[in-house]
Amino acid sequence: MAFKFLQIGKANARIDELEAQLATITQERDQAKAALESNGAEISAAAEQLQTELNAVNNTITGLRASEAKAVKEAATAQAEVASLKEQLKAKDGEVKIKVAHQVQEEQAKLGQPSAPAVPASAKPAKEATGMARIVAAARADLQSGGYVPKR
Question: How much is the pTM?
Answer without folding.
Answer: 0.38
